[in-house]
Amino acid sequence: MALVVIGGVAAGLSAAARARRIDPRLEIVVLEKGPVISYGACGLPYFVEGRVREVTDLITYTPEYFRKERNIDVRTGARVMAISHPRREVVLESGAKVAYEKLIITTGARGGLPDLPGAQLPHVFTLHTLDDAARMRRFLVERRPRSAVVIGAGYIGVEAADALRRNGLRVTILERSAHVLLRPDDGFTLAVRAQLERHGVELRTGVPVMAIEPGGVAGVPADLVVMAAGFQPNVELAAAAGIEIGRSGAIRTDERMETNLRGVFAAGDCAEVTHLVTGRPTWIPLGTTANKAGRVAGACAAGARERFAGIVGTSIVSVFGMGFATTGFSAAEARAEGFTPVAARIEAWSRPRYYEGVKTVVELVADGVTRRLVGGSVIGEDGAAGRINVIATALHARLRVDEFEQLDLAYSPPFTPVWDPILIAAQQLIKEMGA
Q: Which one-letter DSSP state was computed for residue 389?
């Protein structure tokens, strides 16, 4: 039996490695269109910043490693142009054909706005591959730009702005919507804006970009432009093969990560998964999801019976050292999903004040009918990741706010106050709900 995996980054290699563990005899071929595999895309902004010294430091494994240590045939520069499921084969750009019995599609997603006028100018960059990061870093060193515009205030955009500002550039972020970090939440956006402005980055929301000029964008001067908007799943290859695309625009899969074509699986940034708060399909491209869903796809393609239950969309981003973390839904998103949201936002000490505590902001969102937690956010320099992970765990467990408020959390002055900020937020939420 031959298993072919299209894509050699997070989901693809997780799938291949898991399949190999399930079946040591399986023939596994990974086809990667680019020149490298297994790199940490989330580390790209830190290379641009200069914190990561060499771009190759972001590469975790090489094709040679997978061939020698895992007995997996990884082929780089192997772009798949078509899938013929009736023939059980994929066609490469070179014209070669690779046969399969099972197929896993991990074609990822793409960003940038390639059709935007001016997008091909030499001072315009995206930040998705090692080559993107290396080219941007080289531009910074050789051209010494003084000003930059970042188009898009999602995760990549905000991290890119941070990296460029630390290189001494004047940075402006232009965001089409009224909010940042893909979170329709006025308070959260206000906090991000304040942190950006505190460090010299201007954020302009409600600004659609129609074109990039040689000297600037939307009236803002720019020696360098980063396109960090327009993120979308790469589904064209799958759609042309008759694979169903979900309402989100990503590949539709079941809990085994199998598509509507039997024996064809999909995982990572190109595929939908289930949102555990609503029970409905969603597309939230995150590296954590890609790795976990890829493992399930690989296991099932190798004959095991595993399932990927779903996600709650947990993420965190650093903005000049301040953690901005979210999980589940904001109040506005919860209302759009059919809930009756009640929210409480508090500010409290991350540790006792006498032990050099800093202020942490926590918001919790619950459904007013069932009292079940449906989302939350944490903003702070200390412990934001741990706190958002506790809230995410509560969403997985479908806890009601009354149950959440009684969680037995650790206390010691060097780490946390006797009443953790997330429990204070739960107490306030219970008050807001009238009980």
A: H
